[in-house]
Amino acid sequence: MYSVDETNYGYRLFFADRIPADEMQRWFEDSKKILGNQKHEFFSVLIDMRNIRPLDVEAKAIMEKGQVFYRENGMQRSAVIMNSNIVALQFVKIGKTTMIGQNERYIDANQYPDWEQRALRWLESGQEPF
Description:
Layout: E1 2-6, E2 10-17, H1 21-36, E3 43-52, H2 57-72, E4 75-82, H3 85-97, E5 104-108, H4 115-125
Parallel strand pairs: 2-3, 3-4, 4-5
Antiparallel strand pairs: 1-2
Helix pairs in contact: 1-2
């Protein structure tokens, strides 16, 4: 399951459960339509992954393409909210591969109950969440 919602800072993405490659491809196609219809200089993205399961190889490859697409279309900062160490490790690695890692922050929702406020400070003003 996924959703993409426009916000005042950019976009809020939500991913949950197991996302097979065909569903991840739909997310990528939806993202291309949504970002393609907008004129952006820069935007930020909050990604809520508190309930996602680790991605399989095919879905991971599509996520990587999606991250590159967001970066190339103006994504300035991103905040990824997680509560699984396994998912966190997978997405840190993806962020390094897609070269968005330096502008992405990973926030453990179990450790920081105020994760949303921390994420928004980072996204809207560049204030480090920790």
